[in-house]
Specification:
Blueprint: H1 4-40, H2 46-49, H3 52-65, H4 67-99, H5 101-116, H6 123-158, H7 161-169, H8 174-185, H9 187-211, H10 217-226, H11 230-265
Helix pairs in contact: 3-11, 4-5, 4-6, 4-9, 4-10, 6-9, 7-8, 9-10, 9-11, 10-11
Length: 266
């Protein structure tokens, strides 16, 4: 049964969350108003910075033509595929490293070098090997998969060794330990890795589209810069920001579902 003190605490928490949301929206509104006024009153050159009212007009024109959503859909699709591939491949390699200490010791220096290598340098190679369409996926996976391996492997190392030793003492195989302890206990690490991957994969997709693609929001940004259409560039960037919010929100929903399931299930 909830006490008056607890009810008062809940009301204060709700009020605090509302204040945080209102402050965030107020900051965004203040930024947009300042941007609009600066462009209208010639504090800045609107040819170089555009302005919110022009962005809205450009957004409606591009949306009516249908091209904008086609490009946004292509970028979104490439990002989702990139996240899925990097999470699957990264988890499989992290499991291999946990399974075989020999493999982990042998391949660790290569992982460090690959992690430090600027991935944009691989762009021409991906283009020649995979073509202009699939090189975008190659760039997205190259940027996110190493971080996925490192984060999930570190998550495995944080799992209580006493639980694994206990299972081993009862004769459990490595496959049983992996399935019954390691993977379920690593769900928070998977979610944390997924949150990082959303941003990294999106960066990889946009870099790939900059280098070789003929479609997508990255292509629109490059094209808008080349023909000096700042409105097209700004609208594409705004859509990218919106896409990031949607993807991050999706991961948060997934996190809540996973927490509910694993907290109630254990």
């Amino acid at each position: 049964m909830s006490t008056p003190l607890y009810e008062r605490y809940l009301r204060a928490e709700r009020r605090r969350r509302w204040i945080i949301w209102l402050t965030r929206l107020s900051l965004l509104a203040a930024f947009l108003v300042l941007w609009e006024l600066a462009a209208r009153w010639a504090w800045v050159d609107s040819m170089l910075t555009s302005k919110p009212s022009q962005l809205w007009s450009s957004f409606r024109e591009l949306a009516m033509e249908g091209n904008l959503f086609r490009h946004a859909w292509i970028t979104g699709q490439e990002t989702l595929v990139g996240i899925a591939v990097s999470m699957t491949a990264g988890t499989a390699i992290a499991v291999l490293f946990w399974w075989s200490t020999f493999a982990s010791n042998v391949l660790e220096p290569y992982m460090i070098v690959l992690n430090a290598l600027p991935k944009v340098a691989l762009g021409p190679i991906f283009f020649m090997w995979l073509g202009n369409e699939y090189s975008v996926y190659g760039m997205a996976v190259a940027i996110s998969v190493i971080v996925t391996i490192v984060m999930i492997e570190n998550g495995f190392k944080e799992i209580s060794r006493s639980k694994l030793k206990l299972m081993e003492s009862f004769g459990a195989t490595k496959l049983q330990m992996l399935r019954m302890v390691l993977l379920p206990a690593s769900v928070p690490h998977f979610i944390a890795t997924l949150k990082v991957n959303v941003g990294l994969t999106l960066v990889g997709v946009i870099m790939g589209e900059f280098l070789s693609s003929k479609a997508g929001l990255g292509y629109l940004i490059i094209y808008g810069g080349q023909v000096f259409q700042m409105n097209l560039v700004m609208v594409s960037i705004a859509l990218l920001a919106l896409m990031s919010i949607v993807l991050y929100g999706g991961v948060n929903v997934l996190e809540r579902i996973a927490r509910k399931r694993y907290h109630h299930g254990r």
